Amino acid sequence: MAPRVPIDLHIHTALSPCAAAEMKPAEILLTAERAGLAVVGLVDHGSAGNAGAALRAAPAFEPRVLVGIEAESTEGVHLLALFDTLEAVADLETVLAAHMPDLPNRPKVLGEQQLVDEWGEVRGVEDRLLVTATDLGVEEIADLTRARGGLCIPAHIDRSVNGLLPLLGFLPPRLEVDLLEVSSALTPEQARERWPELAGRALVTGSDAHCLQDVGRAVTWIPPEFAQADLEPKKWGEAVARELLRA
Ligand SMILES: [Zn+2]
Ligand SMILES: [Zn+2]
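A: This is the predicted complex of the input protein with zinc ion.
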């Protein structure tokens, strides 16, 4: 088989209350570079507050950087919404925020939500509760992401907590996504055996890293020419899906 390079599209920053404070964009990107990752996705629950810092830090490092939000649907399903511009991800963040309850975070119980800059300095904390569901359906979140040129990937679809298949029991027929993420607990082949409806669907896996040690712990392999493809994330996801299904 032609040489392939690893990508990890599901890495949290320190803005996620469950993530370690060491998860600053530059540290994540340095770790990703050392792990040989060609493309990374940096996300946080319900917010893109560290996306600007990640995009500003990105040119100093090898991996192509996508930034995004891990959104939660009204059904409790997690979906990654990945972008390559701050404008697009900030626009989605605004829409999602209007569909989330305005509740305070409980840092002592849930963890602190740190806003950092590209140099790793803590610039503040987000007081709003970010790990919470929107009142939007899975299809709506996918549509909102695609409408902004973003790549929507239902996250850890096999997981009983916040995973699409255990929660809904099926793939919604109107859900327009090109890639689906299985957790690191099983391989795409094992997922296909367990859920026959995944036949013909392109599956990726990602680390869902909350600490530096886990960055690149689970990856998807793609041809190197796809890594630097100059396509908007939505089109890039379509191309990667076609390639994964062809392989
Ligand atoms: Zn999740
Ligand atoms: Zn996650």
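The pocket of zinc ion (ligand 1) is lined by residues 70, 78, 155-156, 162 (CB under 6 Å). The longest strand covers residues 64-72.
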